[in-house]
Specification:
Helices cover 19% and strands 43% of the residues. The chain contains one helix and eight strands. It has one helix at residues 2-25; strands at residues 35-45, 48-59, 64-67, 74-80, 86-89, 97-100, 106-110, 119-125. An eight-stranded antiparallel beta barrel has the order 1-2-3-4-5-6-7-8. Residues 1-26 form the signal peptide.
Length: 126
């Protein structure tokens, strides 16, 4: 009898949670925010994580970006794939990808000439 009650409770819990899980997965993706994204590199060193600012990039609705990590900004183009990732062409980020992560308006950025493997970039405003 106790076994049946336990199985009924577990089954009921799954039925209760299933629609909520399905609904959460069906939620629309957040639209891309145009504007400035600040970037930071993180490196594990001596038992601690060290964060180093790496400048910022600005994306525009016309498909261009500017990287402001140098004395003279670097300009290129970007596109957005079906998953919301940014794909860069030209400029400092040439052949790079900013992969959307589970936090709103945040990306992991990798590109061929990157000095420290991967940067974390987050929206900071217009």
């Amino acid at each position: 009898m106790k076994k049946r009650l336990l199985l009924a409770a577990i089954g009921s819990a799954f039925l209760t949670l299933a629609p909520a899980g399905s609904w959460a997965q069906a939620a629309p993706k957040a639209p891309l925010k145009y504007g400035k994204y600040g970037c930071t590199a993180s490196k594990y060193r001596g038992g601690m994580v060290e964060y180093t600012p790496r400048g910022s990039f600005t994306i525009s609705p016309d498909g261009t970006y500017f990287y402001s990590g140098f004395e003279k900004p670097s300009k290129g183009k970007f596109s957005v794939d079906k998953d919301g990732n940014l794909l860069f062409a030209g400029g400092y980020f040439d052949k790079g990808k900013a992969e959307k992560i589970d936090r709103p308006d945040k990306f992991f950025l990798v590109f061929p000439t990157i000095p420290d493997n991967r940067w974390t970039c987050a929206y900071v405003g217009k």
